[in-house]
Amino acid sequence: KAMLEQGEALVRMGSWVYDSDTRELRWSRQMFTNMGLPWASTPPSIDDYCARIHPDDVGPVRAAIDQLVMGRDVPEVRFRTHPDQGPERWMRRVVQKTERGAEGKGPSYVGTLLDVTDAVVAEERLRAINEELERRVAERTEQLQEANRDLEAFTYTVSHDLKAPLRGIDGYSQLLIEDHGDRLGSEGRMFVERIRRGIQQMGDLISDLLDYSRMERRTMEPQALAIVPLLEKVLEDHQDEVERGHVEIRRLLEPVTLKVDREGMAVVLRNLIGNAIKFTRDRPKPLIEVGSRVDSEHCLLWVRDNGVGFDMQYHDRIFGIFQRLHRAEDYPGTGVGLALVAKAVQRMGGRVWAESRPGEGATFFMEFPR
User: How many CB atoms lie within 10 A of CB 50?
Assistant: First the structure.
């Protein structure tokens, strides 16, 4: 008995038993402590017991007691102690009913009264934290939406207001060459040609920036997509470059269907194939290999070339926007293509990496869940 009382005191859980035949109710010592009552040989009356319960909670407690007196099942009840009786505490009362087989015998009950104040306080604190978190999320979401609106306005400005004067400069420089080229001299014509190349490069950069911005903001629409037909369409779009460069295309593809965004996947393949063609153009026998390997959980795709390659110490850099490892004079480009690949693969739930050695080509891998 002493050990039981010690255990109940440690966990602040009182216990009681009730015999529906004899109407006898017995409380453990901790029951009195939980209800803020001095120890007594007999439990308090129902009215005295309910007088120590918060007025807002006493109704369900009385209803549960009525069920017990009538020999019915008794629901679990959680209530607060009366604020006039000292610091408010939360109690949880659990009752187990036991039927007795003998004819004419009513059920007996065993119950516990557990002080759950600490748990309730923790729940309230967690609820407050969640509400604050939801408020912050809503606030940040609004900020993000505002930033997206600003980005859309910026994108519109870039696509229209910046490209328009570029087109004007390009047009007038063309007229200058055609109508007044003979008066410019060789040096003058060289300057105009450099201007026009700069215009073309800036136009390409604006277009690539817009593509990157759209990829970052657009809604991805995953769908079952057969990779082989999409790749064939991309290769068909590059057919002129392939034929001019006498590039051999080697296909090592298993038929596979992935749940990815069609436009996102097309952007990835277009950029990787285009890069492979560009960096193999000075090879005597340019070769591009496109392959796949499928297991139960993942699909691995790769684009391999025998081009100039790169040093692996720059691996992470190549996927950054505006990052270039080769001079623009040698290999034209804006430094956005691989950043666009990385962004698209990431947004489709995959990962991308590369393996290479200088002068020995490069292989770009993409892994997607099946």
Answer: 18
Distance CA 192, CA 177 (A): 7
pLDDT digits (tens, 9 = 90+) for 58-112: 999 999 999 998 888 999 999 999 998 888 899 999 999 988 776 668 889 999 9
Q: Are 188 and 232 in contact (CB under 8 A)?
A: no
Global pTM?
A: 0.55
Structure tokens at 258: 């992935």
Helix (H, G, I), strand (E, B) or coil at 340: helix
The DSSP H or E segment spanning 24 is strand 24-27
Query: What span, in angstroms and rounded, lies between the C-alpha atoms of 203 and 166?
Result: 7
Q: How far apart are CA 245 and CA 235, in angstroms?
A: 14
Residue with tokens 């505002």: 146
Angle at 162 between CA 157 and CA 168, to 5 degrees: 140
The DSSP symbol for 325 reads S
DSSP 8-class letter at 302? E
Residues 272-286: tens digit of each pLDDT: 998 899 888 888 899
Burial of residue 236 (number of CB atoms within 10 Å: 0-12, 13-18, 19+): exposed
Torsional sign, CA 145, 149, 152, 158: negative
